[in-house]
Amino acid sequence: MVFHMFRRGAQEVPEKKASATGPVVAWHGAGRVAWSPRDAVSLTKAGFTGNPVGFRSVKLIAEAAAALPLILQDQERRYDTHPVLDLIRRPNGAQGKAELMEALFGQILLSGNGYLEAVGGETGVPVELHVLRSDRMSIVPGADGWPVAYEYAVGNKKHRFDMTVGLPPICHIKSFHPQDDHYGLSPMQAAATAVDVHNAASRWSKALLDNAARPSGAIVYRGADGQGSMSEEQYARLQDEMMSYHQGAANAGRPMLLEGGLDWKPMGFSPSDMEFQKTKEAAAREIALAFGVPPMLLGISGDATYSNYQEANRAFYRLTVLPLATRVAATISDFLSRFAGEQVELRPDLDQVPALSAERDNQWRRVSDAVFLSDPEKRALLGLPKLAEDE
To answer: Name one Pfam family in it (predicted).
Structure first.
């Protein structure tokens, strides 16, 4: 397993650099708008660990997709027990199905790429499955453009997975990217601009709250002889007193004592300045839109796309969770079928998804009432395998 390589005393794998392909950090030049870097690590920090809308969107999708019950079947029957099912239920000693799948979905949503490592499997189904961090993995393309190896790097140590062997140890699941042949495009990258706007608005709001939600005002100096400027000593003393006695949360509400020649002029924001909060709400909706999460499920105000919460939840499962979970399950089942020596299909069990219970009931009722369909045809329409007597 790759994790043993990084333990103290483990044998070092010789470093081989066969490709310059790798993540590129996009820095913008001076004088332009200050956008955050677009590499996977920076986007994860800014859009997941540092943004509540991005965090909740990723967690909502990953947890919902990981909680979907999975069924395993082939052309003849649906399996209740199977080595592939046992492996999915307990993929390794530290994780169960939900933890492994949540980590895999999270990596896909944050970076556009998910990497699953199969440990063992020389004589059958792998012994363990592990999700590898996408920011540490790089693809080594061959002369024909297809990956011949994957390199997993931690610090200055690298481990190379050979993909030219009979049973490749890495399953790479990537999202569609129109301009990259090897790496996927993540929703976080599409939402990066909205994340920057939302984070900047949050910092602006925090600074505004620290300043009593408005620019306090201006201290105007008028000397006894009509002069409008203070001496350097007077100016420095006034600044020190303002910082010591009238700034910060501990000094909120403390009255200000002004000496002769100083006058207080209160100030406030215009209504157009206070529209800044709407910019933050619009950015939050754009982040939710990029991930395919109805803003109603995130508690974002001002969105009335769906008439009720139940309709929004049903659309969330039908349009976001199920396409992702179905695509990942199909890729994993094809990957594990090579080890098992037989073609099996792993897919979500839609009949056990509470959010889809109403439409599934309608589908079962329509199919069962169709008198012009035979029982084998009805089973095929419902996604059920054939019965033995139907052969």
So the answer is: Phage_portal
For residue 282, give the nearest of 303, 268, 255, 267 by alpha carbon: 303
Token pair 């991005």 in the structure block, residue:
54
Do 230 and 377 fall into the same domain?
no
Q: Which of 217, 209, 203, 202 is nearest to 248 (CA)?
A: 209
Same domain, 296 and 328: yes
Domain with 235 in it: 216-267
Per-residue pLDDT of the chain (391 residues; tens, 9 = 90+): 555 554 444 444 444 433 333 333 333 333 344 566 778 888 899 999 999 999 999 999 999 999 999 999 887 788 889 999 999 999 999 999 999 999 999 999 999 999 999 998 777 899 999 999 999 999 999 888 889 999 999 989 999 999 998 899 999 999 999 998 899 999 999 999 999 989 888 887 777 667 654 555 666 666 666 566 667 777 777 777 777 766 655 555 556 656 656 666 665 555 555 566 788 888 999 999 999 999 988 888 766 666 788 888 889 999 999 999 999 999 999 999 999 888 999 999 888 888 888 777 777 788 887 888 888 887 777 777 776 655 5
302 and 175 in one domain? yes
